[in-house]
Amino acid sequence: MARDMLTASQKRKHTMDFLQTLEGSDRERLLKRLHSGDINEAQFEDEVCNFALTGLTKRMQLHVPGLSSPEPEDFSWHITNMSKFINAIYSEDSDSKKILRRAENAQIMVDDIYENWAKLRVVTQMYGRVLAKRWTKRIVPKRQKILLEAWPGMNPKHRPDFEVVRHGLQGRHHRDAIMLPYINLEDLSFEKNLLAMMVSRTKVHPEYFAFSDRFPFKTAVTLGAVEPAAQYGRVMLLTNQKSRDTYGSLKFIDTWDIEDLVWTGFAFQLAEGLVVLEIQQQLYRFLWRCTELLLHDIDSLHMVTGTENMDGEEQSGLAQVIKPEPTEW
Questions:
Q1: 84 neighbors 55 (Cβ within 8 angstroms)
Q2: Cys-Cys crosslink for 64: which of 40, 88, 279, 304, Cβ 3.0 to 4.6 Å?
Q3: How many whole angstroms separate alpha carbon 75 and alpha carbon 68?
Q4: What residues have CB less than 8 Å from 185, skipping those under 6 apart?
Q5: What pLDDT sits at residue 108?
């Protein structure tokens, strides 16, 4: 039989390797059944491998094509399916591999985020009162014209993500509505909302918003707006990373510690971290474009270079003009 293709020591080694990947409750339950005589050693090996494969696939939200059902006493089935599982993770065409390639190039997004964030900080410090005066004096149609020029096709109504869910819509063309629901004409046309967003997003490092910017990820996955693939053994660092050199960096880590780190916000799954960077890149670009449109007559604006050093900095001129209430931004 196929089971005899493996030696006893090989079967035992594979079983012990797989056993270590199980959750504590599953591991204890299987060991208890073995010791009580409820299952024999061969059945124990099959159960361990089956639990391991199922758990890994579910944990990583990974689709593994070609998995088949085991035949009795066929330990080699688990080895074959584990090979398919590994190939699904590491093949060049796999979602996980594509996510990894994008994550390895995340520095491009990080540089863009920090460049616009730093320029916004300088401009709101220098021209904050001018920005506030020019925005608040405009009537709503003129504010909307600026918003649409800065973000073409902006969603017109409050909470566009609710509209997507309410109408059962799905797909990547609803990404903006799902991941950036606060970018909409109805909310941002109010007198102080855009200014409040500028203040809140420029007075602290982007990393302070990484945890809250991750919230739309699960909804986006459910509605098919982003890829759900996880990358085995790697995480992205965002929280507590206050420089462009470390923000969005990747780290190898024991896979079985990943869930705890992700749940507590100390690390991000790669697909999730990429969504956070995409949200921040779009948002800081939008805010900088609004600033350019409002200060279009200031010739030196295109020469502005920002600083990432926040030590001893005074409150921005814009923050002195408005005192924003706590917001989701």
A1: no
A2: 88
A3: 13
A4: 144, 147, 148, 154, 155, 156, 157
A5: 92
CA distances from 58 to 15, 49, 198, 228 (A): 20, 14, 40, 11
Give the per-residue pLDDT at 57.
Answer: 47
Q: Cα–Cα–Cα angle for 289, 118, 294, nearest 5°?
A: 30
Of residues 105, 91, 108, the one with CA closest to residue 229: 91
What gap in Å lies between CA 40 and CA 210, rounded to an integer?
A: 50
Average pLDDT by stretches of 10, the chain with 329 residues:
51 60 66 78 71 53 48 48 52 63 86 94 90 94 97 94 85 88 96 93 93 89 77 80 91 69 81 92 97 89 67 59 58
Q: Which amino acid is at 292?
A: E
φ, ψ dihedrals at 171, nearest 5°: 115, 165
Residue 250, strand partner residues: 236
CA distance between the termini of the chain: 62
Q: Which amino acid would we find at residue 268?
A: F
Q: pTM for this one?
A: 0.70
Listed residue (215, 205, 270, 283) closest to 239, CA to CA: 205
Helix (H) or strand (E) holding 35: helix 24-36
